[in-house]
Design the sequence.
């Protein structure tokens, strides 16, 4: 499980993928954690099956390798459990969740 401190440090680790699985409308209402990429939960399975160039075109970042460090975040820490399950079922082995997710981030950042 990732901590607030680890998530805050993600911009210093370009090899780490911080994936926010909230819907786009939620991000527009609340904002997002810096360095995160948005892949809504209902798109995640399909997104992780895209080829590298299609993934980069859609999400603006190269597709994670199966062993790339991935941290999933959402609003309150529930959807990340499903995201973790999806990624692991596709062979991604270095996956953790940020249980505090946006709610903890916003509180600690004073947002």
Sequence:
């Amino acid at each position: 499980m990732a901590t607030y401190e680890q998530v805050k440090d993600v911009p210093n680790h370009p090899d780490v993928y911080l994936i926010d699985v909230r819907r786009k409308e939620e991000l527009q209402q609340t904002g997002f954690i810096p360095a995160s990429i948005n892949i809504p939960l209902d798109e995640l399975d399909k997104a992780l099956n895209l080829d590298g160039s299609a993934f980069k075109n859609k999400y603006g970042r190269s597709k994670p390798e199966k062993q790339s460090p991935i941290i999933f975040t959402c609003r309150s820490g529930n959807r990340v459990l499903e995201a973790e399950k999806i990624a692991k079922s596709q062979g991604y082995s270095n996956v953790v969740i940020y249980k505090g997710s946006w709610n903890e981030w916003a509180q600690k950042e004073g947002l």
Remarks:
- The chain has six helices and four strands.
- The longest helix spans residues 79-89.
- Strands lie at 17-20, 36-38, 70-73, 95-97.
- The chain has one domain: 4-109.
